Amino acid sequence: MISLEQIRYFLEIVRCGSLNKASEQLYISQPSLSKQLQQLEKKLGCELLNRSYDGVEPTPQGKFLYERMSGVLDEFDRVIGQVQHLKKMNQVHIGGLANLVTYFLPQYMDNLRAGGHNQVIVDTCLFNRELVDGVENGKFDIVLLSNAEPQQNIAVIPLMTEPLCAVFPVTHPLYHQKSISFMDIIAHEKLVLYKDPCTIRASIRKQCNRMKITPNIVMELDLTESLLGYVSRGKGITLLPSIVAKGIQNPSIAAREISRIPVYREISVAMRKENVPVYLPMFSKDTTSVNWKKS
Questions:
Q1: Domain boundaries, the chain
Q2: Is pLDDT above 80 for 294?
Q3: What average pLDDT score do residues 226-249 get?
């Protein structure tokens, strides 16, 4: 069976143009190197080098092997190096609601990677409960939650509060209004909203219950992209957190904060209580305060 070691020896001989020089570079004796070369040629069934007093030159078969295997072994060495590097890295498993992973998490990724010391693995879940369970059972080190409830066994730390925005086509009359009222939206507009159970829906529902009014929900969808697709077609308007609304790239859609009776959602990070000193500073904009090592 042909070994990687034999291929490496052959490549070094061609690079050096001499068995003697190659043996010096490889720190093996010339007779041992010659034996390995002979075994390689025997297994391949052809001569790979033409030998002369001036050194060695590859045969056509040798040139073909050299050209093809040089790149293969360079890639092999690169992959091995990456695997060894990953072995030395800490793995940080992060879970979050999809819109938080997409729009909120990126600004903290450099902190979380800790200058290359951490390998960050990110996954999304549909519900806060699933994320909290993931911290409790060890699946996640950190999770990002929306309108989270306090937990007995893990730390839930609020990071920011943001308003919900009305999102509608630029052809909608709301586009020209300086002030948008939550009451006007709920009372007069068709709504395309995230499907329940959903913390954003819970915020909307809570405000509607206070005002004793029932929203006209014409469609419920799982994904932000789906909501925006139907909004752009004039099927209704939607309510989205401001960080999501600000990320909209579709020029046919506008987003405005609700100025009268605003509705908010709270973004929190959750982790095991003993990990708070390690992970919480990573969500600071002041990177000098970040501690890169696990306690």
A1: 4-88, 90-159+267-289, 161-265
A2: no
A3: 94
Instruction: State mean pLDDT over 114-133.
Output: 90
Yes or no: domain 90-159+267-289 corresponds to CATH 3.20.20.105:
no
Residue 197 reports pLDDT greater than 60:
yes
Task: Say which CATH class 4-88 falls into.
Answer: mainly alpha
**190-210 b/e (C-beta count within 10 Å ≥ 16 → b):** ebbbbeeebbbbebbeebbee
Q: How far, in Å, are 20, 150, 235, 285 from residue 281 at the CA level?
A: 58, 20, 43, 9
Domain 161-265 has CATH 3.40.50.300: no
Predicted local distance difference test score (pLDDT) of residue 175: 93
